[in-house]
Amino acid sequence: MSFPHSLPEPRLPDPTGGPALRWGILGTGWIAERFAASVLRHTNHQVVAVGSRSEEGAQRFTGRLGGEPLGSYAELVAHPRVDVVYVASPHPQHVEHALLAIAAGKHVLVEKPMAIDATGARRIAEAARAAGVLAMEAMWSLCLPKFRVLRRLLDDGVLGEPTMVSADIGEYFPDAHRIHDPALAGGAMMDLGTYPLTLATWVLGAPTEVAAQGVRGPTGTMAQTTMTLRHGDAQSALHASALVETPTVAAISGTDAWVSLDGPWYQPGSFTLHGRDGGQLRHLEAATAHDGLYWEALEVAHCLGEGRVESGIRPLDATIATLEAMDQVRAVTGDRLAGES
Ligand SMILES: NC(=O)c1ccc[n+]([C@@H]2O[C@H](COP(=O)([O-])OP(=O)(O)OC[C@H]3O[C@@H](n4cnc5c(N)ncnc54)[C@H](OP(=O)(O)O)[C@@H]3O)[C@@H](O)[C@H]2O)c1
């Protein structure tokens, strides 16, 4: 296909156009605070209730961001004004907490990874489908404007046949951080590796062959992993580290054109489309980090506004496929997690 004159416009939901969802926040940690702040800043949604394992935890959170403080998750999911529960507990608790909300008849947006393995994600998918409620993995990157432009470039064949994806993500975390805790499914894969694996499977589909190597960190978890995956005739080269900073850039190469994503590529930011003849088009997007979390809330509202209980951007089967790939990688590296099936 010939190199385009301009990039396609992303199809974006209107921040105030869908239903004004009433969120219940489950867990009051690092990401929950950023999610609530972003949603309150950019949408007409409300945070109506916040559930914590303790009264003090809930009050600390609502003191800053509002909402009714509740000292248990059971009270949160039973709250009559809550439409949708955002599950922001550590990874090994996602299944239990998502199932709790689904059993109470609530829609759920579950932090990534949806579960520590594909079996857990399948349990959430089955429960949500049986209850007729929405369940979506909070894979926020795919909801950002730049990934919507990329999807159109891929679907329109602008890149030709996608043949190679390379992506890394690396961030130093001190030894005491949750990410190194063996009891909380610590290591690089859950928090970080899920991003490059999502990108590779989003572009190239499920891997047909997996090779990987892992390095253990200070607490014995698999704190750094490199992966080379075959997807039919295409390949991906991915790595994730919780030990060191890396450029955190990504590239998608097709037979006609390729894309380089500025780092950190999984957050809001810009990318360049390169033609084989040297032509370039630049997608400009402000690098606003986690202030971009509201796009995933708008995707939930957009689906519910259309009467759909599954996201077209992050369908449940795609979440399960990413976790199946992660299960395969961890089997190769010997990255066993406490509590996995
Ligand atoms: N999208 C992103 O960019 C992004 C970034 C960071 C993290 N995440 C994801 O979000 C999830 C939470 O990460 P986080 O960094 O926010 O973690 P965090 O700061 O440790 O917060 C987790 C919260 O979960 C609750 N919790 C429930 N059971 C717990 C247990 N057994 N141990 C510890 N806390 C427990 C706690 O809230 P209460 O005490 O109030 O109950 C705690 O504050 C992870 O799955 C992670 O992958 C996503």
From TrEMBL:
Q: Which UniProt keywords apply?
A: NAD, Oxidoreductase
Boundaries of every Gfo/Idh/MocA-like oxidoreductase N-terminal domain copy: 21-136
In terms of superkingdom, the source organism counts as: Bacteria
Q: Where is the GFO/IDH/MocA-like oxidoreductase domain?
A: 147-259
Q: Which SUPFAM superfamilies match?
A: Glyceraldehyde-3-phosphate dehydrogenase-like, C-terminal domain (SSF55347), NAD(P)-binding Rossmann-fold domains (SSF51735)
A molecular function GO annotation: oxidoreductase activity
Keyword Amino-acid biosynthesis on entry:
no
Provide the family line: Belongs to the Gfo/Idh/MocA family.
Specify the protein name: Gfo/Idh/MocA family oxidoreductase
* The species this protein was found in: Arsenicicoccus cauae
Q: Upper taxonomic classification of the species?
A: Bacteria, Bacillati, Actinomycetota, Actinomycetes, Micrococcales
